[in-house]
Design goal:
A hairpin with a 6-residue loop joins strand 4 and strand 5. This protein starts with a helix and ends with a strand. 13% of the residues are buried. The protein has 142 residues and is mainly β. The chain is built from one helix and ten strands. It has a single domain, classed as Immunoglobulin-like (Sandwich), CATH 2.60.40.2550.
């Protein structure tokens, strides 16, 4: 019986010594407004909730663009700078909300109505990308 307890304790001790993957970086959408608009009339506001357990969001270099916003109608994404939320060389869990304002969209084709959505993700200072999410469909009319 003592041998079984010793083996169990050994396995428990070894499993607790293994390095865990503590990296957690997640974003989600809270709201997108408006979802129906006339071209050039209103900007779109997207509220993004974020959580990073090490706080590595945002870059100290203002030229580094880490917020990716891609219009579903276009091939290339737009990139924006996010400022860091914690002091250099520190690991603090951060949670919060980013209020992103996207310039008023316009119709690319010759019709009177187009629908689009935006795909959004964020890169942290370790080069890891968050999960990607998409806004609901947005209708733009002339």
């Amino acid at each position: 019986m003592k041998k079984i307890v010793f083996i169990f304790l050994s396995v428990l001790l070894l499993s607790s010594c293994k390095k865990k993957d503590d990296s957690y970086f997640n974003i989600s959408i809270l709201s997108t407004t408006p979802t129906t608009l006339q071209e050039f009339q209103e900007n779109i506001t997207v509220e993004i909730e974020f959580e990073h357990n090490n706080g590595f969001m945002g870059f100290y270099d203002p030229d580094y663009l880490s917020l990716e916003v891609k219009d579903s109608r276009l091939l290339n994404a737009d990139y924006y700078h996010l400022i860091p939320l914690n002091p250099p060389n520190s690991e603090l869990e951060i949670k919060g909300i980013i209020k992103l304002e996207i310039d008023a969209p316009f119709i690319l084709g010759s019709g009177n109505l187009e629908t689009l959505f935006f795909s959004i993700r964020i890169q942290d200072r370790e080069g890891e990308w968050s999960n990607e999410f998409s806004t609901p469909l947005i209708s733009v009319s002339r």
